[in-house]
Amino acid sequence: MGHFAWNSEHEVFIAQIDAEHRDIFQLAERLERAIETQAPPTEIREHLHALSAHAEEHFSHEEWLMQSVKYPSYGWHRQQHDTARRRLKLFVPLVEEGNTEAIEAFLEFLAGWLADHTGVTDRMMASFVRNYERAHATSALERWGTSKPLVASAPHHSHAAETGPYPKTLHFCKTCGHQTAHEMRPSGLLCRNCAERSVGVELDRD
Ligand SMILES: [Fe+2]
After folding, report:
1. Average pLDDT, stretch 30-51?
2. 158 strand-pairing partners
3. pTM exceeds cut of 0.70
4. CA of residue 119 to ligand 1 center, whole Å
């Protein structure tokens, strides 16, 4: 095996994105090693869930960034993320069951997808973002990883305030247990349902 060693061909030349990609490669490598060494199922499950959670968080970060800079190929790029999301959803229960064929197929898929996606699709996006950063006084990257939206705050209760500066996606929330609208924030997905119950005032301030 040894599918997931990080090398310079995976770099997209944006430090924040490269750091997250490195984490994903490292988590995939740990999962692969655990499977190769026939680690206990609980350990394999932990690696798998960590990888899945990091991947989702990272996809949301990239999607936030692409929307912030109005990246013209957002839809195409998002489709590739959605393919990986669907495969993860399909494979995770099979890998958890210890289905060895599924494990092999999953690692093959993941290695191929990561190499193609980081080497082509993410590099194209990163090139656009670097050009954007050079051409605009307002940096999207400076806000990446913080809770500050790129778009200035809108007045309370205006239409813009309702839609908010963050792109939204439907997502199953593990906290409230519902399929709800989630804001794709740089710090990760935020469930509107949970947030409105606990920090509603803060949400309105966005
Ligand atoms: Fe991507």
Report:
1. 91
2. none
3. no
4. 10
